[in-house]
Amino acid sequence: MNLDETFSWEGRRIAWGRAGAGPAVVFCHGTPWSSWLWRPFAEALRTDFTVYLWDMPGYGRSSKDPGHPVDFGAQADAFAALVAHWGLDRPHVVAHDFGGAVSLRAHLVHDVPYASLLVADVVAIPPSGSPFFRLVKQHPDVLAQVPPYIHEALVRAYIENASHRGLREDDLAALVAPWLGESGQPAFYRQIAAYDERYLAENEALLDRIDIPVSVVWGAEDGWIPVATGERLAAGIRGSTFTRVDGAGHLIQLDAPVALATALRSWLTAQGA
Q: Which UniProt keywords apply (predicted)?
């Protein structure tokens, strides 16, 4: 499944793709990832659903203009505009990492209606952020100027740390590639510098407004965002379910693909999708 469409929004170019037929399921990625992580899951569901993938501005194949904000608020604005562009009425939304905060804000602040929401190892409520993430946030301009070979080594080590089981070289290379080169390197540090936990506090304060079915799925060995945070998120959403996936770290898509795919299809089926 390719991102062969583009949506122009406030000077940005958002890459997206659609495939299949049936109820709409929209996937939201996080940082430092892209829609690439969700592609196999979208492919598996396209026989029964219309699946949508997109790269947030500043990520993947979307534009990386240094003058464009990439914080939670800007990404939620972009997502709300994109859902309207697609003409979707109450899609099922699936989110990982940063995509959790984006999808929650679009729903709670911009009133984008969803049929259901499944979130996996999401950045959604405070606190969040690995030790390296916090270091980069303190020194983004300095790190953006390191030689490319040092930058690549840093990004590789950072991404590898998100997996509990360890990554195959081709998977690691695919995840690192968008952050290399003249535009990729500064974009990597820029999106971390834009992180603002106030948006997460706002999300947490509004959780009691959620009145759609919500599933929270979490890797038991997530070293970036502890499983206790996932449990707290689920406890704050009335009627939500919580699923703990053993043997999976933050990169649950690659650590436990079968368990995640099973949970996703079971969830969508239970919603009558």
A: Hydrolase
Confidence band, pLDDT 50/70/90 cuts, at residue 185: very high
Phi, psi of 80, deg, nearest 5 = -60, -40
* pLDDT average, residue stretch 188-194: 88
φ, ψ of residue 168 in degrees (nearest 5)? -70, 150
**CA angle centred on 27, ends 22 and 29, rounded to 5°:** 170
CA–CA distance, 153 with 45 (Å, rounded to integer): 35
Please confirm whether the linkage preceding 257 is cis (ω < 30° from 0). no
What's the pTM value of the predicted model, to 2 decimals?
0.95
Q: What's the rounded Cα separation, in Å, for the pair 65 and 215?
A: 34
Q: What is the pLDDT of residues 70-109, one digit of tens each?
A: 999 999 999 999 999 999 999 999 999 999 999 999 999 9
- What whole-number distance in Å separates Cα of residue 204 and Cα of residue 176? 31
- Alpha carbon distances (Å) from 62 to 94, 110, 152: 19, 22, 20
The DSSP code for 60 is T
